[in-house]
Amino acid sequence: MPQDVIALMFPGNSEELLPRYAEGARRYRDNGGTAPEQVVVAHGDEGLLVNLVWGEGVSHELLGRHMLGLLTELDLPFPRVDHGTVATSSWDSLTARARRRPAARSRAGSRA
Q: Model's pTM, two decimal places?
C-alpha cells in the first residue's frame, strides 16, 4: 500500500494561520492521535500550505475529522484539500526516473 499525501491550502495570512493550525495539531497529538510520517508547512502566496505524508496503512481520517471539528473554534478557513500517493521522495529517485534524451545536435553543423 503506498503512502498517502494530503496537501492542504488554508487561504489567508499564513503568519496568522500557522499558530492556529499548530494548536489543532497539538490537541490531536495530546488526545493520542497518530502523527504523520512527514510534515511540511510553508508560507504561500495565497495562504498556509500544509503537506502531510502518512505511513503505509496509517489512516489520516481521524486527523481530518478532528481538525474539521476545530475550524470554527480556531478561526481557520476551510482549506482546499488534495489527496495523492507518494511517487518519490528524493531528488535522486526523481532524476533517475527521467528518460535519457540524446545529446542535442549542433544547429550549425546541420546547415548546408
A: 0.79
